[in-house]
Amino acid sequence: MISEYLGIDSDYIVIGLAALVLILIIVMIVNAAKMHSLKKAYNNFMTGKDAKNLEDTILKRLDQVEQLMDSNEKNEKNINRIFSNMKYTFQKVGLVKYDAFNEMGGKLSFSLALLSQTNDGFIINAMHSREGCYTYIKEIIDGNSVITLSEEEQEALDTALNSNKK
Fold first, then answer.
1. Which whole-number Å values give the CA distances from 115 to 22, 95, 124, 137, 161, in the listed order?
2. Percent of the chain beyond pLDDT 90?
3. Domain presence at residue 26
4. DSSP letters for 121-164
5. Are residues 71 and 118 in the same domain?
6. 17 and 80 housed in the same domain
7. Is the keyword Transmembrane helix in the record (predicted)?
8. Residue 18: CB partners within 8 Å, gap ≥ 6?
9. How far is the C-alpha of 162 from the C-alpha of 124, rounded, in Å?
10. Tens digits of per-residue pLDDT, 107-136?
11. Per-residue pLDDT for 40 more than 70?
């Protein structure tokens, strides 16, 4: 047969096959030991610390993620609502102090312009004299007044209109 064809004694073939079987048995034992170690590590991983189950931990984290997503959605809605309300708040300010009358000093009179994002608002003009203080208000719509503005009022309005352009 093969031994006669190759010129090898059959005893050497049997010894070689026995050695191969012995090596395969050793490899199988090493694999079994590694598999046992892996199973032990897997069981420890799945049971977790303090008898906590990995599934319970994952479900808990998923619930927390859902809560965070809901909270984020509410925050976005609140922020959008705040920004839409901000359009109507006074965001632009212009103030000019001046002397209304030559005999008065100290720049006690003033013009104060308060405008929203859409340039709507009013100008308060307070003129201080020896007899008293007179206060006037003029409505501003889209950056303009229907009533003619004094020089100081126009300066306060221009300051307010340019206050957010920085």
1. 94, 12, 11, 13, 8
2. 59
3. yes
4. EEEEEEEE-SS-EEEEEEEEETTEESSPPPHHHHHHHHHHHTTT
5. no
6. yes
7. yes
8. none
9. 18
10. 889 999 999 988 999 999 999 888 888 999
11. yes
For 32, half-sphere exposure in the C-beta direction (CA atoms, 13 angstrom radius) is: 6
Domain boundary among 54, 84, 114: 84
Domain stops at, among 84, 117, 141: 84
* 117 close to 91: Cβ distance less than 8 angstroms: yes
Number of domains present in the structure of the chain: 2
**120: containing domain:** 92-161
**Residue 79 is assigned to a structural domain of this protein:** yes
- Please, what is the Cα angle at 42 between 41 and 43, to 5 degrees? 90
> Over the stretch 45-96, which tens digit does the pLDDT of each residue have?
777 665 567 777 788 899 999 999 999 999 999 999 998 888 889 999 999 9
Query: Would residue 2 count as lying in a domain?
Result: no
- Whether the CB-CB separation of 2 and 14 falls below 8 Å is answered with no
